[in-house]
């Protein structure tokens, strides 16, 4: 089966003016303007199969949102190719735009002053959704996102989380086959993050939609994505299962130990990253894990020990720190 | 049919939005009533000082000119160019571009609903000012018949012209200077500051072929009978030509603008 999203050597460069600080430099720039080309995305290639949820990871300015904007038809690339559902996104055919949507955590498509239900009606007309299908989808989305009481309140009177739920509802009314979610849980509290995550998962399961998701919250990625694409300074660093990312980039294991002593000195065995009473968290080099564990069992009175990979945030930190 | 339904629903949404900010809207509309009244008073004073006639106008015809101008300018003006840079900067346009619908359609309905709502103020203002200021109207039936198509063409032409000016925001982050240059040109050549019959002959003749006059004062002068049927016909041909030009120009500029769009701020 052909992939739904196919990206080949996609590059987007921006011409950025170079200006030194100071009045003299400002005057000089009137006569001698200098520009530099910044590669926001450089030779990125990947494919996504139908029904996959893929996490798109990278630090700020890595090129995640730029890639998403090219795939949703908002930006024209400088070079490279991409097809989504068989369409070239930046040609912006209406037939293509009817099959996708992009939700941006910091932007909204709903009318600020009116209840979301009013804008939904306009969405229905724009996407030519038949009445019965519209009612059915709206009911389903209202149940999944718990929208019932929100649709009659002006959007500006909703909380950030409520607004994001309404945005998601509106973005999915036409049941897009491909969704680009850019920081959908940005600024939301933990409970609301869970709700949105649960919703994205169940929507994907119900409709088999393909989802490319960016998030700064690793919990989103860990909960939703089996596969991640890591991008840094515009270039692809890793594409594969999340577990493989951890195995590849985490050079340490984390040992959580409970001892009978609150003042044991474990510094010689590894890095003590946390210490709370009788509980210690120790990071040790991966290839020394067995030796350190044996040493602890032999020389200390342990009441519990757990060996885990470090949190995904630490792994990602490691990835970007080493590159 | 799809577009008709979109226009209807979009118009309803915009109507509700305009009504939410009714106080702000009233202040804007009031200022638009005031502008022609101020120019009218200035030129009436000039006419009086000149012994009752200036540039072929009397106090009464000048009053009629500015009162009709007040309504026509309201029905043909747009404000889109003043907020386009904001839309790009704040990511509003990015949101609109995700829809399978050209963003111009929203502007059409937003503009049209504002005009309709505005008439609620402009018609009573026209009647009230007519009672106090005694305009001289000399209406012939053909003037009424010609007025409607000239007004429609003026509104369509001016909308596309100003939408094209708004597109400068794709090239210049700060495009208010373009908007100001356009504003000055339109104020002068449209006949809003003074009827162009008061200009030197060569300037007046040139202004009659420019879209500024054709988009504002031409329907006014058509209704008031200042133009001969031949002049009205040739004016309508010029309007149609400008309309076709701006339609093509907007399509051309837009195709380049979306390629240039940086989707910043979104």
Description:
- The complex is a heterodimer of chains A (323) and B (266).
- Chain A has eleven helices and 13 strands.
- Chain A has a six-stranded mixed sheet with strand order 5-6-7-3-8-9, with helices on both faces. In chain A, strands 11-12-10-13 form a four-stranded antiparallel sheet, covered by helices on one side.
- The longest helix of chain A has 18 residues.
- Chain A has two domains: 243 residues, 3-Layer(aba) Sandwich (Rossmann fold), CATH 3.40.50; 73 residues, Alpha-Beta Plaits, CATH 3.30.70.
- In chain A, helix 5 runs antiparallel to helix 6.
- With 323 residues, chain A is an alpha/beta fold.
- Chain B is mainly α.
- Chain B has one domain.
- Helices cover 76% and strands 0% of the residues of chain B.
- Chain B contains twelve helices and no strands.
- The two termini of chain B are 32 Å apart.
Topology:
The complex is a heterodimer of chains A (323) and B (266).
Chain A: E1 5-18, H1 23-31, E2 34-48, E3 53-57, H2 64-71, E4 79-84, H3 94-97, E5 100-104, H4 116-126, H5 131-145, H6 160-172, E6 178-182, H7 190-207, E7 210-214, H8 218-224, E8 227-232, E9 235-241, H9 242-249, E10 252-259, E11 271-276, E12 279-285, H10 289-299, E13 302-308, H11 312-322
Parallel strand pairs in A: 3-7, 3-8, 5-6, 6-7
Antiparallel strand pairs in A: 1-2, 1-4, 8-9, 10-12, 10-13, 11-12
Chain B: H1 2-20, H2 22-49, H3 59-76, H4 80-89, H5 92-97, H6 104-133, H7 141-166, H8 176-189, H9 201-207, H10 211-215, H11 217-224, H12 229-260
Helix pairs in contact in B: 1-6, 2-3, 2-6, 3-6, 3-11, 4-7, 7-11, 7-12
Features:
heterodimer, A: 323 residues, alpha/beta, Rossmann fold, Alpha-Beta Plaits, 2 domains, 6-stranded mixed sheet, 4-stranded antiparallel sheet, 11 helices, 13 strands, globular, B: 266 residues, mainly alpha, 12 helices
